[in-house]
Structure formats: C-alpha cells, structure tokens
Amino acid sequence: MNNNPIRSKDRFLVFAAPAIEDAEIEEVVSTMKTGWLGTGPKVMSFENEFKAYKGSQYAIAVNSCTAALHLSILAAGLQPGDEVITTPMTFCATVNSIVHAGATPVLADVDPVTMNIDPAQVEAKITPKTKAILPVHFAGRPCDMDALCEIARRYSLKLIEDCAHAIETEYKGRKAGTFGDFGCFSFYVTKNLTTGEGGMILVGRQADADRLKILALHGMSKDAWKRFGDSGYKHYQVVEIGFKYNMMDLQAAIGIHQMKRVAPYWKRREQIWQRYNEAFADLPITLPANPEPDTIHAYHLYTILVDEAKAGISRDEFLNAMYAENIGVGVHYISMPEHPIYKQMFGWQPEDYPNARYIGLHTISLPISAKLTDADVEDVIAAVKKCLALGQTKSVVLAAAAA
Ligand SMILES: *Cc1c(COP(=O)(O)O)cnc(C)c1O
Question: Hey, which of 71, 86, 94 would you mutate to test ligand 1's pocket, going by the most ligand atoms within 8 Å of its Cβ?
C-alpha cells in the first residue's frame, strides 16, 4: 500500500475554509479609513439586504448566532422554569442560549435519516411548562415545518428557528427563518456566509424588532441607536438590563459582499455534494439523504456515517486517517447528552436519544466549502477511498485470523 499522503503537508486542506474575495478586503480597508468601525451605515445596509433576500419584515444584526438565540428566547417572553424543546443533534450554543435566557432545555430525538428534530418526539415532550420549540435546520436541510408550525399553533408555543446552517434553505417555497416568531443566523467563519463573527435575527413583528434592538445594546431605549450618527447629541435612557451584542460596520463590510455571492457559492457546494454522491455511491458508508422534494437544501455540511461493522474502520480511526492524508474533517455533532455539563444539570442520558447518539458516534463531515477547487474535491475523494480501503484490508485480516 502507498504510504504517501494524498496531499503534501504544506497543502493541508482546512475544513470549512471561508471564501473571501477582494471586494470584502477592499470594503474592510475603506471602512477603516472612514474611521467608522462600529455599528453604523454598513450594518444598516447589511440588515436591509439580508431581510430583502429572505423576504422578512425586520432584520436585527448582532455579533453571533448565540447572541441571536439568547435575545430571541428573552424577547419571546420566556421565564425561568419555562421549557424549550430542541434537538440533541446541534452545536452546544443552541442549548447554552436557552440556559443563558434562564429557561430549561428539553430534548426531542431526531429522525435518523434527515437528522432533523422529529415532530412526533417534540409532541411527546410537551408539558404544561413548554413555551417554545427551537428546531435546527441541520446541515441546511429544512425541518418538517408543516408539522412543527402546526404543533406550535395547537399548543400556543413560540417557534425560534436556529438557521445557523440555513441561509439558502427553503421549505415549500418559503425561506428558513421566516416560519417562526424568530429566525436566527450565524455568520461565523465556517458558515455559508461569513462576517468573521456575526449573527442576524429575522422577525415579522415590529414590537419584537424594537425589543431585540434594546436588548442587543445595553438595554438602552431604541433611540439610542441614533447615537451612531452625526445628527446632534442624543441622551439615552436605559430601560432594561441588556447586553452588548451589536454588530460592527467592519463585520458588515464583509457581509454585504458575501451576500452578493450567496447564489454562486451555493451552486458550487451543490456541485461538490453531487460529485461526492457519485464518487461514494458504492462505498460501505451511509451518504447524506437526498434533499426532499419542494425544498432547497443549503448544503452546509456533507455528513457521512462510518459504521465499523460495515466499513471495517471505526469513525475515530477514519477521522485520524483523513488527517494523516492532510484532509481536515469535522464531527457535527456528538449528541448533546454526551457532554458532562448537561448530564450534570439536566440528567440527560445519551441512550434516551438513540438516533442522535448513533449519528454522533458515526458521523464525519467532509469539506464542502465553495472555496474548494476541483483538485481539492478529488483529493478528498481519493483520501476517503484510501481510508476505507484500510478498513477493508483490516476486515480481511481479522476474518482470516478468526478462520
Ligand atoms: C455555529 C452554530 C451556532 C452558533 O453560531 P455563532 O455565530 O458561532 O454563535 C448555533 N447553532 C448552530 C446549529 C451552529 O452550527
């Protein structure tokens, strides 16, 4: 067997590297030259462009999706002791934001194929304390929004969408983040659209938009935002205990140019997704489910499942073998109940969420950034095949030893 890695060390393929082009770089530099680094006109343009793209009434830019989720739960009027039902197959920020807001997270297991929260499991977890549902459009695949909206309506629950993977996601012609009371987005470096760090909240009601703006800026009355201008001195009043979650113009300078490339970047990721599907069709691994009809998948993550029983190599061995080939890969995600703090605080047991647990123990995310060249994609494919061949050799050796 050939022991040379697929890629040389100096060409390590960084997982989820952002695609940054000259327009962003020039805009950041010119923003710095204006001297207006903080919240200002660029944040306002970015909000306007984002809400126009999404067809939403209001957009509030913040400094992360974690902040967006935290403020949304507060603005939804949740009180300590209120329960929020969410998914065990997510990033810890989803659960943490519920805790930050003083509410109690409750998990409902995912569907094993879509990896999205299962509406039947959600309904089974509803108690008199349940006040909100917080679904995550996992990997960019829309959740079953007909079912979730219907449950929210029937039980009078708030619906807060975690759209960190779901910029381009659509369900039956409607864009993710506009179904619920609040739609929360992330512009972290690894996401489909980046501002380095950043987030956005979409809402349909002006009262929610006003409250979110106050909460995002120290609890200062909404006119305080006018301080970020040159139309004379403005006194401000603090009307509640808020947070420091506002986005900077420096970040928005990146976002307004990234916005323009949402469609071509999506198209590129779709191409990579299809190339992987074709290249891996006969391998002993589970590929991500095809997008459902009448939906748009955002292709944020390409997640395969590697089960040692079939592949002859364990997930963790596979992860290390890919690194040895100089290909950066990810795990999205170890299921939430596996983390010690949640076990300790909420008594969660991984076995109680068997679908999320299985995914968490077997999943690997392959690079699918729009930045990848065709040669990068072929390197990933060659590395996956090489790592699996290792597994097949191992199985043959083990079978021979057992015989
Ligand atoms: C990235 C991510 C977040 C957090 O986003 P930040 O902008 O980094 O705070 C929340 N939920 C999910 C599902 C994510 O992937």
Answer: 94
State the CATH class of domain 22-260.
alpha beta
Cα 22 from Cα 263, distance rounded (Å): 18
What DSSP string runs through 142-199?
Answer: PP-HHHHHHHHHHTT-EEEEE-TT-SS-EETTEETTSSSSEEEEE-BTTSSS--BS-E
- CATH code of 262-402, in short, is 3.90.1150.10
Q: Give me 375's structure tokens.
A: 């040669």
Percent of the chain's residues with pLDDT above 90: 90
CA distance 110 to 141: 13
Task: Find the 94 Cα to ligand 1 centroid distance in Å.
Answer: 7
**9 or 335, which is more confident?**
335
Q: What are the boundaries of each domain within the chain?
A: 22-260, 262-402
Gap between the Cα atoms of 289 and 181, Å rounded: 28
pTM over 0.70: yes
Q: What angle do CA 208, 211, 214 make, to 5 degrees?
A: 150
Contact (CB, 8 A) for 164 and 87: no
Residue 384 pLDDT exceeds 90: yes
Residue 223 has pLDDT above 70, yes or no: no
Cβ–ligand 1 contact at 66 (below 6 Å): yes
Query: From ligand 1's centre to the CA of 177, what distance in Å?
Result: 14
